[in-house]
User: Fold these one by one.
Assistant:
Number 1:
Amino acid sequence: MRLSSEGRDDLVREIDVAEEPLAFHGVLPYRQASSRSQPPRGVPATTATTWPLWTLVGLVVFLLFAVGLWVKSLGSLPAEPVGRAPTPSAVGGRPDPGTAEVFPMSFGDYTLIRRIGKGGMAVVYEAVRRGEPCALKRPLSGFLEDTRFRERFLREAELGRTLHHPNIIRIFDRGQVGTTPYFAMELIQGETLRECLDREGRLNPLVAARVTARVAEALDYAHNKGVIHRDLKPSNVMLERSGGVKVMDYGIARAQHLDGLTTTGSFLGTPSYSAPETVDAGSRPPSDLYSLGVVFFEMLTGSLPFRGESAFAVLRNHCTTPPPVPSSLNYALSPALDRIVLRLLSKDPAERPTAEGLLNDLTDYLAEPP
């Protein structure tokens, strides 16, 4: 920054602009080399000591600009005070936009590289331990005192370690750093099905059928292990760049040996993808198949079968309203796909196929000539 005025020495300063308001005050001394610049003692300043108009205008503009930056910074301050993170140069890392985190950062035996996802209750990082990459999930600080959430978080880690299937994301490690529990899982190169649908709208029917078949394989394995997912939706399905499909997030899953963690009469899940019987907390393996039917419907049509102005209205439609025929929304769909989807969306759980039965139906469909 340089301030100049006729008859005075320039003032030059180097300033590091941080994420804080900047207060700056400078005094420009008279030039000692010019006797005309120094007014005689006791004599009022004359035109020789009066700042030119352009200098005054410049200073006013500068002050207005500084005040504007200060006011803008007040609007961006967090509602609650947070500790100021070290600067990137101090740690040799880079800040994560929109957060106070600076990467890389240490967390127990892990080095967190970047944030790759954040939900309403937990955050996921790309991490490294002893040179091995992984994804590390830990709760948001506001949920550390929530006993029921901690139980579900730890249950997800426990169930994930018992499910060994190529279409289910693997859990490698779990533990606790200070008061923060965590678990480490395989790092997937790809995107969620939710991200894919948000970008593409709907998928080619063959692609949608293949994704559904891979999820059906995962459900068949988990159901045979006595595990019900209970929250199957596009954001819990990962699409690998290599073409693989991974089911993840067993945070509210139900296992026979952990039934005591479920409160009778409580609703768990996402209304847009929930089976009618889950309104009364009656999740069973067919409930997962219904949710998969909603996901399949969305992949084929780019729309949900049931909507409503509230979660209650959506759940009511699941219970009472017949689903639309998929081909009524996408004329390119075959009668075979209509039959598969509508059977999955049956109100009566007994009328839905098992995961194995669905896989057989999809195999037959994919084997047909285009």
Note: The CA atoms of residues 236 and 310 lie 22 Å apart.
Number 2:
Amino acid sequence: MTTTIRINGQVTTVQAEPDTPLLWLVRGELGLTGTKFGCGMALCGACTVHLDGEPVRSCVTPLAAVGPRAVTTIEGLRSRVADAVRDAWLKLDVVQCGYCQSGQVMAAAALLARNPRPTDADIDAAMAGNLCRCGTYPRIRAAIHAAAAALAPGPQAGANSPVRGP
């Protein structure tokens, strides 16, 4: 069956059944391998992509559920918020093995796009279900706070950021 999908700002037509998981299309057909296969049951977050800006687990999202909405993968994540998140990830050395990090970045960018000043509780809620086998959770939280501080308006954006953790 022919399916048209809008992904990372491009419209493409592929041969796929409506019940095909979005992840298989993203990785297998389109070669966008930044989105990872983790558990296949929407429990780990490694496969997180944005669907019209909202994080979804692509391993359980069938193509039929995508329709005309915009899909963004880690390769297509472009915005001031995404840049701040990536910068904070690098500055705070968040990544250890790195396998889960594309999903973590996608979830963090979606959080900051809708809530530019998250509390620890907000971060915990938004990042729940994004598992990190290496246990970098304190650095992830600190990086989200640092990205929020960098995005804050004013001449001292980023100064005195509420960074916590190692």
Note: The longest strand covers residues 2-7.
